[in-house]
Amino acid sequence: MKWASALSTQPSLEAALDEVIATAMQSLDAPADLAILFISTTFASEFPRLQPLLADKLPVQHFIGCGGNGVIGPTQGGSTAEVEEEPGITLTLASLPGVDIQTFHIYEDELPDPDSAPLTWTELLEVDPAHQPHFILFADPSSSKISDLLQGLDYAYPGAVKIGGLASGRSSWSGSGLFCDDQLYREGTVGVALSGNIMVETIVAQGCRPIGQPYRVAEAERNVVLQVEEQTVPVEATFNADEVELQTPLEALQTLVQDLDEDERELAQHSLSVGIVCNEFKQNLEPGDFLIRNLIGVDPRIGAIAIGDRIRPGQRIQFHLRDAQASADELEELLQHYFQKSPPDQSQPIAALLFDCLGRGERFYGEPDFDSQLFRRYFHNIPVSGFFCNGEIGPIAGTTFLHGYTAAFGIFRSQDD
Question: Where's it mainly located (predicted)?
Protein backbone atom coordinates (compact mmCIF):
# COMPACT_ATOMS: atom_id res chain seq x y z
CA MET A 1 0.00 0.00 0.00
CA LYS A 2 1.25 3.46 -0.96
CA TRP A 3 -0.26 6.92 -0.60
CA ALA A 4 0.97 10.26 -1.92
CA SER A 5 -0.48 13.77 -1.73
CA ALA A 6 0.32 17.09 -3.38
CA LEU A 7 -0.90 20.67 -3.05
CA SER A 8 -0.92 23.47 -5.63
CA THR A 9 -1.88 27.12 -5.19
CA GLN A 10 -1.61 27.96 -8.88
CA PRO A 11 -4.50 30.27 -9.90
CA SER A 12 -4.94 28.41 -13.22
CA LEU A 13 -6.95 25.18 -13.10
CA GLU A 14 -4.79 23.49 -15.76
CA ALA A 15 -1.53 24.56 -14.14
CA ALA A 16 -2.69 23.49 -10.69
CA LEU A 17 -3.79 20.07 -11.94
CA ASP A 18 -0.54 19.56 -13.82
CA GLU A 19 1.43 20.38 -10.68
CA VAL A 20 -0.44 18.10 -8.27
CA ILE A 21 -0.63 15.21 -10.72
CA ALA A 22 3.08 15.33 -11.52
CA THR A 23 4.10 15.67 -7.87
CA ALA A 24 1.77 12.97 -6.53
CA MET A 25 2.54 10.44 -9.28
CA GLN A 26 6.27 10.92 -8.84
CA SER A 27 5.98 10.45 -5.08
CA LEU A 28 3.66 7.44 -5.39
CA ASP A 29 5.86 5.64 -7.93
CA ALA A 30 3.17 3.00 -8.53
CA PRO A 31 -0.09 2.73 -10.46
CA ALA A 32 -2.84 4.65 -8.66
CA ASP A 33 -6.06 2.80 -7.80
CA LEU A 34 -7.86 5.69 -6.13
CA ALA A 35 -7.68 9.47 -6.44
CA ILE A 36 -9.16 11.89 -3.86
CA LEU A 37 -9.26 15.56 -4.81
CA PHE A 38 -10.21 18.68 -2.88
CA ILE A 39 -10.57 21.91 -4.83
CA SER A 40 -11.04 25.45 -3.63
CA THR A 41 -14.39 27.00 -4.51
CA THR A 42 -12.53 29.91 -6.08
CA PHE A 43 -12.57 27.45 -9.01
CA ALA A 44 -16.34 26.84 -8.68
CA SER A 45 -17.17 28.17 -12.15
CA GLU A 46 -14.68 25.66 -13.60
CA PHE A 47 -15.93 22.58 -11.78
CA PRO A 48 -17.53 21.18 -14.99
CA ARG A 49 -14.08 21.21 -16.63
CA LEU A 50 -12.35 19.29 -13.85
CA GLN A 51 -13.14 15.68 -14.70
CA PRO A 52 -12.56 15.97 -18.47
CA LEU A 53 -9.14 17.45 -17.73
CA LEU A 54 -8.36 14.69 -15.23
CA ALA A 55 -9.41 12.00 -17.70
CA ASP A 56 -6.71 13.26 -20.09
CA LYS A 57 -4.00 13.69 -17.47
CA LEU A 58 -4.54 11.05 -14.76
CA PRO A 59 -4.93 7.30 -15.41
CA VAL A 60 -7.02 6.21 -12.42
CA GLN A 61 -10.19 4.13 -12.29
CA HIS A 62 -11.76 5.40 -9.06
CA PHE A 63 -12.05 9.09 -8.22
CA ILE A 64 -13.96 11.09 -5.60
CA GLY A 65 -13.69 14.66 -4.39
CA CYS A 66 -15.48 17.86 -3.54
CA GLY A 67 -15.22 21.63 -3.37
CA GLY A 68 -14.24 23.44 -0.21
CA ASN A 69 -13.75 26.95 1.07
CA GLY A 70 -10.18 25.91 1.76
CA VAL A 71 -7.94 22.91 1.11
CA ILE A 72 -5.20 21.19 3.08
CA GLY A 73 -2.14 19.43 1.72
CA PRO A 74 1.62 18.93 1.86
CA THR A 75 4.01 21.64 0.71
CA GLN A 76 7.17 21.09 -1.30
CA GLY A 77 9.14 21.61 1.91
CA GLY A 78 7.47 18.68 3.64
CA SER A 79 5.17 20.59 5.99
CA THR A 80 1.37 20.80 5.67
CA ALA A 81 -0.44 23.97 4.57
CA GLU A 82 -4.05 25.00 5.13
CA VAL A 83 -5.02 27.21 2.18
CA GLU A 84 -8.06 29.22 3.22
CA GLU A 85 -10.28 31.21 0.84
CA GLU A 86 -7.63 31.23 -1.88
CA PRO A 87 -7.03 29.09 -4.98
CA GLY A 88 -5.84 25.63 -4.08
CA ILE A 89 -6.07 21.99 -5.17
CA THR A 90 -5.02 18.96 -3.16
CA LEU A 91 -4.69 15.56 -4.82
CA THR A 92 -4.17 12.28 -2.99
CA LEU A 93 -3.30 9.12 -4.93
CA ALA A 94 -3.38 5.65 -3.40
CA SER A 95 -2.01 2.36 -4.66
CA LEU A 96 -4.09 -0.22 -2.82
CA PRO A 97 -3.20 -3.84 -3.59
CA GLY A 98 -5.57 -6.20 -1.84
CA VAL A 99 -8.19 -3.49 -1.33
CA ASP A 100 -11.64 -3.55 -2.94
CA ILE A 101 -12.75 -0.05 -4.00
CA GLN A 102 -16.39 0.87 -4.69
CA THR A 103 -17.41 4.45 -5.44
CA PHE A 104 -21.03 5.57 -5.26
CA HIS A 105 -23.42 8.52 -5.36
CA ILE A 106 -26.73 8.74 -3.49
CA TYR A 107 -29.46 11.34 -3.96
CA GLU A 108 -31.34 12.39 -0.85
CA ASP A 109 -34.67 11.12 -2.12
CA GLU A 110 -33.15 7.64 -2.64
CA LEU A 111 -32.51 7.14 1.07
CA PRO A 112 -34.56 4.33 2.62
CA ASP A 113 -37.08 4.97 5.35
CA PRO A 114 -35.35 5.18 8.76
CA ASP A 115 -37.17 2.01 9.83
CA SER A 116 -35.98 0.03 6.81
CA ALA A 117 -34.04 -3.19 7.25
CA PRO A 118 -30.23 -3.18 6.84
CA LEU A 119 -30.62 -5.07 3.55
CA THR A 120 -32.36 -2.03 2.03
CA TRP A 121 -29.28 0.08 2.73
CA THR A 122 -26.79 -2.49 1.45
CA GLU A 123 -28.78 -2.90 -1.76
CA LEU A 124 -28.76 0.88 -2.28
CA LEU A 125 -24.98 1.11 -1.97
CA GLU A 126 -24.28 -2.31 -3.51
CA VAL A 127 -21.57 -2.78 -0.88
CA ASP A 128 -21.45 -6.15 0.87
CA PRO A 129 -21.24 -5.76 4.68
CA ALA A 130 -19.51 -9.13 4.87
CA HIS A 131 -16.46 -7.46 3.31
CA GLN A 132 -16.20 -5.16 6.38
CA PRO A 133 -15.90 -1.91 4.42
CA HIS A 134 -14.93 1.55 5.63
CA PHE A 135 -16.41 4.70 4.09
CA ILE A 136 -15.18 8.14 3.02
CA LEU A 137 -18.15 10.47 2.44
CA PHE A 138 -18.61 13.94 0.93
CA ALA A 139 -22.09 15.45 1.03
CA ASP A 140 -24.06 18.41 -0.27
CA PRO A 141 -24.25 21.02 2.53
CA SER A 142 -27.93 21.73 1.84
CA SER A 143 -28.89 18.11 2.53
CA SER A 144 -31.48 17.78 5.29
CA LYS A 145 -31.03 14.03 5.65
CA ILE A 146 -27.33 13.58 6.23
CA SER A 147 -27.98 12.39 9.80
CA ASP A 148 -30.48 9.85 8.43
CA LEU A 149 -27.80 8.62 6.04
CA LEU A 150 -25.23 8.23 8.81
CA GLN A 151 -27.72 6.46 11.04
CA GLY A 152 -28.64 4.08 8.22
CA LEU A 153 -25.00 3.31 7.44
CA ASP A 154 -24.30 2.62 11.11
CA TYR A 155 -27.29 0.28 11.13
CA ALA A 156 -26.30 -1.61 7.99
CA TYR A 157 -22.50 -1.52 8.52
CA PRO A 158 -22.07 -1.46 12.32
CA GLY A 159 -18.36 -2.16 12.32
CA ALA A 160 -17.46 0.29 9.57
CA VAL A 161 -15.70 3.61 10.03
CA LYS A 162 -17.43 6.54 8.32
CA ILE A 163 -15.37 9.71 7.91
CA GLY A 164 -15.75 12.81 5.74
CA GLY A 165 -17.44 16.18 5.53
CA LEU A 166 -19.94 18.48 3.89
CA ALA A 167 -18.75 20.46 0.90
CA SER A 168 -18.37 24.18 1.58
CA GLY A 169 -18.23 27.34 -0.48
CA ARG A 170 -19.37 30.87 -1.05
CA SER A 171 -22.89 29.70 -1.83
CA SER A 172 -24.60 26.40 -1.16
CA TRP A 173 -25.00 25.61 -4.86
CA SER A 174 -21.85 26.89 -6.53
CA GLY A 175 -19.59 25.51 -3.83
CA SER A 176 -21.17 22.09 -3.48
CA GLY A 177 -19.38 20.37 -6.29
CA LEU A 178 -19.27 16.63 -5.62
CA PHE A 179 -17.11 14.47 -7.87
CA CYS A 180 -17.46 10.73 -8.37
CA ASP A 181 -15.50 9.01 -11.15
CA ASP A 182 -16.48 10.92 -14.32
CA GLN A 183 -19.59 12.67 -12.93
CA LEU A 184 -20.13 16.07 -11.30
CA TYR A 185 -23.04 16.26 -8.83
CA ARG A 186 -24.57 19.25 -7.09
CA GLU A 187 -26.75 17.27 -4.68
CA GLY A 188 -26.61 14.18 -2.52
CA THR A 189 -23.57 12.31 -1.22
CA VAL A 190 -20.57 10.79 -2.97
CA GLY A 191 -18.37 8.24 -1.32
CA VAL A 192 -16.02 5.33 -1.55
CA ALA A 193 -16.14 2.03 0.31
CA LEU A 194 -12.75 0.46 1.03
CA SER A 195 -12.50 -3.16 2.15
CA GLY A 196 -9.82 -5.81 2.31
CA ASN A 197 -6.24 -5.05 3.31
CA ILE A 198 -6.94 -1.66 4.89
CA MET A 199 -7.71 -0.22 8.30
CA VAL A 200 -9.21 3.21 8.97
CA GLU A 201 -8.89 4.78 12.42
CA THR A 202 -10.20 8.15 13.51
CA ILE A 203 -9.41 11.07 15.77
CA VAL A 204 -12.37 13.43 16.22
CA ALA A 205 -11.51 16.61 18.15
CA GLN A 206 -14.59 18.72 18.93
CA GLY A 207 -12.69 21.73 20.23
CA CYS A 208 -14.26 22.19 23.67
CA ARG A 209 -13.43 21.84 27.35
CA PRO A 210 -15.93 20.94 30.08
CA ILE A 211 -16.83 23.36 32.86
CA GLY A 212 -18.65 22.60 36.07
CA GLN A 213 -20.06 19.16 36.69
CA PRO A 214 -22.24 16.71 34.76
CA TYR A 215 -26.00 16.78 35.24
CA ARG A 216 -28.52 14.05 34.62
CA VAL A 217 -31.48 15.13 32.50
CA ALA A 218 -34.67 14.62 34.50
CA GLU A 219 -37.17 16.04 32.02
CA ALA A 220 -36.85 16.83 28.32
CA GLU A 221 -38.93 17.20 25.18
CA ARG A 222 -37.26 16.68 21.80
CA ASN A 223 -34.23 19.02 21.93
CA VAL A 224 -35.35 21.04 24.98
CA VAL A 225 -33.99 20.29 28.46
CA LEU A 226 -36.55 21.23 31.14
CA GLN A 227 -35.17 19.82 34.40
CA VAL A 228 -31.80 18.47 35.53
CA GLU A 229 -30.38 16.96 38.68
CA GLU A 230 -26.88 17.15 40.04
CA GLN A 231 -24.75 14.10 39.27
CA THR A 232 -24.13 13.21 42.92
CA VAL A 233 -25.09 9.52 42.90
CA PRO A 234 -23.56 6.68 40.89
CA VAL A 235 -25.20 6.00 37.55
CA GLU A 236 -25.84 2.40 38.59
CA ALA A 237 -27.60 3.42 41.79
CA THR A 238 -31.33 3.33 42.21
CA PHE A 239 -32.96 5.97 44.37
CA ASN A 240 -36.24 7.55 45.31
CA ALA A 241 -37.04 10.27 42.77
CA ASP A 242 -38.87 12.19 45.50
CA GLU A 243 -35.54 12.69 47.29
CA VAL A 244 -33.75 14.12 44.26
CA GLU A 245 -33.40 17.90 44.13
CA LEU A 246 -34.31 19.07 40.63
CA GLN A 247 -33.49 22.41 39.06
CA THR A 248 -33.88 24.01 35.68
CA PRO A 249 -30.83 23.92 33.40
CA LEU A 250 -30.80 27.71 33.42
CA GLU A 251 -30.51 27.69 37.22
CA ALA A 252 -27.65 25.20 36.96
CA LEU A 253 -25.95 27.37 34.35
CA GLN A 254 -26.35 30.56 36.40
CA THR A 255 -24.78 28.87 39.42
CA LEU A 256 -21.95 27.59 37.25
CA VAL A 257 -21.22 30.97 35.68
CA GLN A 258 -20.85 32.56 39.11
CA ASP A 259 -17.87 30.29 39.77
CA LEU A 260 -16.09 31.13 36.50
CA ASP A 261 -13.32 33.69 36.26
CA GLU A 262 -13.83 36.91 34.32
CA ASP A 263 -12.36 35.60 31.06
CA GLU A 264 -14.48 32.46 31.20
CA ARG A 265 -17.63 34.47 31.88
CA GLU A 266 -16.92 36.55 28.80
CA LEU A 267 -16.32 33.39 26.76
CA ALA A 268 -19.58 31.89 28.01
CA GLN A 269 -21.50 34.79 26.45
CA HIS A 270 -20.77 33.54 22.93
CA SER A 271 -18.95 30.17 23.05
CA LEU A 272 -21.09 27.97 25.27
CA SER A 273 -21.96 24.43 24.18
CA VAL A 274 -23.48 21.34 25.73
CA GLY A 275 -21.75 17.96 25.84
CA ILE A 276 -23.95 14.86 25.85
CA VAL A 277 -22.28 11.88 27.52
CA CYS A 278 -22.12 8.99 25.06
CA ASN A 279 -21.60 6.16 27.55
CA GLU A 280 -24.19 6.39 30.31
CA PHE A 281 -22.26 4.02 32.57
CA LYS A 282 -18.83 5.63 32.43
CA GLN A 283 -17.89 7.58 35.55
CA ASN A 284 -14.48 9.12 34.82
CA LEU A 285 -15.26 11.24 31.79
CA GLU A 286 -12.55 12.26 29.31
CA PRO A 287 -12.33 14.09 25.97
CA GLY A 288 -14.04 11.91 23.41
CA ASP A 289 -16.75 10.84 25.86
CA PHE A 290 -19.02 13.75 24.90
CA LEU A 291 -21.00 14.56 21.80
CA ILE A 292 -20.77 18.36 21.60
CA ARG A 293 -23.88 20.25 20.50
CA ASN A 294 -24.62 23.97 20.29
CA LEU A 295 -26.73 25.65 22.93
CA ILE A 296 -29.22 27.29 20.58
CA GLY A 297 -31.70 28.96 22.92
CA VAL A 298 -32.83 29.74 26.47
CA ASP A 299 -36.36 30.26 27.74
CA PRO A 300 -35.97 32.42 30.88
CA ARG A 301 -39.67 32.02 31.74
CA ILE A 302 -39.33 28.33 32.56
CA GLY A 303 -35.53 28.02 32.75
CA ALA A 304 -35.30 25.60 29.83
CA ILE A 305 -32.49 25.37 27.28
CA ALA A 306 -32.61 24.14 23.70
CA ILE A 307 -29.65 22.30 22.19
CA GLY A 308 -28.80 21.22 18.67
CA ASP A 309 -29.86 17.60 19.03
CA ARG A 310 -32.53 15.43 20.57
CA ILE A 311 -32.15 14.74 24.27
CA ARG A 312 -33.95 12.25 26.48
CA PRO A 313 -34.43 11.87 30.24
CA GLY A 314 -31.66 9.85 31.84
CA GLN A 315 -28.87 11.17 29.65
CA ARG A 316 -26.04 13.14 31.21
CA ILE A 317 -24.95 16.54 30.00
CA GLN A 318 -22.17 18.95 30.87
CA PHE A 319 -21.65 22.53 29.78
CA HIS A 320 -18.56 23.22 27.66
CA LEU A 321 -16.62 26.26 26.49
CA ARG A 322 -15.01 26.55 23.08
CA ASP A 323 -11.82 28.53 22.56
CA ALA A 324 -8.53 28.12 20.75
CA GLN A 325 -6.59 26.85 23.76
CA ALA A 326 -9.25 24.29 24.65
CA SER A 327 -9.29 23.12 21.04
CA ALA A 328 -5.52 22.75 20.91
CA ASP A 329 -5.37 20.94 24.25
CA GLU A 330 -8.10 18.48 23.28
CA LEU A 331 -6.52 17.60 19.93
CA GLU A 332 -3.12 17.07 21.56
CA GLU A 333 -4.65 14.87 24.27
CA LEU A 334 -6.44 12.75 21.65
CA LEU A 335 -3.25 12.39 19.62
CA GLN A 336 -1.36 11.23 22.70
CA HIS A 337 -4.16 8.81 23.54
CA TYR A 338 -4.03 7.35 20.02
CA PHE A 339 -0.37 6.42 20.41
CA GLN A 340 -0.79 5.14 23.94
CA LYS A 341 -3.47 2.65 22.89
CA SER A 342 -1.79 1.54 19.65
CA PRO A 343 -0.29 -1.97 19.92
CA PRO A 344 3.44 -1.89 19.19
CA ASP A 345 3.20 -4.73 16.66
CA GLN A 346 0.53 -3.19 14.41
CA SER A 347 1.35 -1.75 10.99
CA GLN A 348 2.27 1.93 10.87
CA PRO A 349 -0.10 4.66 9.61
CA ILE A 350 0.62 5.53 6.01
CA ALA A 351 -1.73 8.44 5.22
CA ALA A 352 -4.35 10.72 6.75
CA LEU A 353 -7.30 12.82 5.63
CA LEU A 354 -8.31 15.90 7.64
CA PHE A 355 -11.84 17.28 7.62
CA ASP A 356 -11.60 20.63 9.38
CA CYS A 357 -14.44 22.97 10.27
CA LEU A 358 -14.70 26.36 8.61
CA GLY A 359 -14.84 27.78 12.14
CA ARG A 360 -11.30 26.62 12.90
CA GLY A 361 -8.25 27.67 10.88
CA GLU A 362 -6.23 30.86 11.16
CA ARG A 363 -9.04 33.14 12.32
CA PHE A 364 -9.75 30.81 15.23
CA TYR A 365 -6.19 30.07 16.34
CA GLY A 366 -4.53 33.32 15.33
CA GLU A 367 -1.91 31.39 13.35
CA PRO A 368 -2.01 29.37 10.13
CA ASP A 369 -1.92 25.59 9.65
CA PHE A 370 -2.52 24.83 13.33
CA ASP A 371 -4.50 21.56 13.30
CA SER A 372 -2.49 19.99 10.49
CA GLN A 373 0.87 20.97 11.97
CA LEU A 374 -0.08 19.68 15.42
CA PHE A 375 -1.05 16.39 13.80
CA ARG A 376 2.32 16.22 12.01
CA ARG A 377 4.19 16.54 15.29
CA TYR A 378 2.96 13.03 16.05
CA PHE A 379 2.72 11.66 12.48
CA HIS A 380 6.00 12.92 11.04
CA ASN A 381 6.25 11.20 7.70
CA ILE A 382 2.76 10.55 6.39
CA PRO A 383 0.94 12.70 3.82
CA VAL A 384 -2.02 14.71 5.10
CA SER A 385 -4.68 16.18 2.84
CA GLY A 386 -8.19 17.48 3.37
CA PHE A 387 -10.49 20.46 3.22
CA PHE A 388 -12.46 22.95 5.31
CA CYS A 389 -15.98 21.62 5.75
CA ASN A 390 -19.47 22.92 6.35
CA GLY A 391 -19.90 20.03 8.80
CA GLU A 392 -17.64 17.14 9.69
CA ILE A 393 -18.50 13.43 9.68
CA GLY A 394 -16.90 11.15 12.23
CA PRO A 395 -17.57 8.68 15.05
CA ILE A 396 -17.91 9.37 18.76
CA ALA A 397 -18.01 6.28 20.97
CA GLY A 398 -18.74 4.05 17.98
CA THR A 399 -21.64 6.06 16.54
CA THR A 400 -21.25 8.33 13.51
CA PHE A 401 -22.40 11.94 13.79
CA LEU A 402 -22.39 15.17 11.85
CA HIS A 403 -20.33 17.68 13.82
CA GLY A 404 -19.48 21.36 13.84
CA TYR A 405 -16.25 23.15 14.89
CA THR A 406 -14.50 19.79 14.69
CA ALA A 407 -11.25 18.42 13.29
CA ALA A 408 -11.95 14.86 12.10
CA PHE A 409 -8.96 12.78 10.99
CA GLY A 410 -9.11 9.52 9.09
CA ILE A 411 -5.87 7.55 9.52
CA PHE A 412 -5.07 4.75 7.06
CA ARG A 413 -2.86 1.71 7.41
CA SER A 414 -2.76 -1.87 6.20
CA GLN A 415 -4.31 -4.71 8.15
CA ASP A 416 -2.18 -6.28 10.84
CA ASP A 417 -0.29 -9.38 9.76
Answer: membrane
